[in-house]
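Hey Z.,

So I finally got round to the fe (ii) ion thing we talked about over coffee. Here's the setup:
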Amino acid sequence: MEPPRPEPDDAVVMLVAQHRRLEELLRRLVGADAADTRREALHEVGDELALHVIVEERVFYPAVAAASTESVLLESLEEHLSLKRLLDDLLALDPQDPTFGPKAHVLQEQCEHHHEEEEEHLFPKVVLLLPQAHRLDLGREMLREQGRLRREGAPREALRRQTDAAEPLRSD
Ligand SMILES: [Fe+2]
Ligand SMILES: [Fe+2]
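And the result:
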């Protein structure tokens, strides 16, 4: 979808920009051959994916939970679980393992599909639901949370502890 307005702190604009950045990092991961390049690209994908998914689950989804968004949010949480499990598998693999390439490709496909779902079925509803002032507050809160997670170091490790079940849908 087209971002509603070119306001970088708008939560929806911010999440769409993070999708494009993640897709770029995933292309780099899938294109990498050497073990150290693969490992480095995977860590970058893992950290960015973690920052994105964690703020969606802790900040964004609860703020936008409503009757009109519930089913897409529940499906999104299941898609997040699948992404976390794939990432966990990849981080446990030797980058030269023959399954590394195919698994990285599946992670790329699932991420792209998930981004499409959010951009087509969730974000347009959020734009109708929340006035821009609210989306700006939300965007700033998301940035603060991401800064905190970054300072803790290796955000990807937090995702690896969340592979048992999908996070429950909370509402503010
Ligand atoms: Fe998501
Ligand atoms: Fe997202």
